[in-house]
Amino acid sequence: MKTITLFVKEATSEKPIRALEAIIIAMDGVERALVDTADGEVKISFDEKVLGQEQLIERIRQDGFHIV
After folding, report:
1. Crossing angle, helix 53-62 and helix 14-25, to 10 degrees?
2. Is the pLDDT of residue 37 over 90?
3. Which residues belong to any copy of the HMA domain (predicted)?
C-alpha cells in the first residue's frame, strides 16, 4: 500500500470535497482518501500494483480539479 499527499485547489469546501472523494474512492486500487478542508490537502492510500500514481493524478485532473 502506498500513500501520497496532494494539494487540490478546489478541495476547501464541502461540495467539491464530496465530489473529489467520490471520484477517488471509485477507482480500483484506492483504499482510502482523507481531505483536510483547511488547506485542500488530500492523502490517498492505494495499491500500486493495481493503480499508478500518475493514473490517479490524471483522473483527478480530468474531472476538473487542479493539483497545486
Report:
1. 140
2. no
3. 2-68
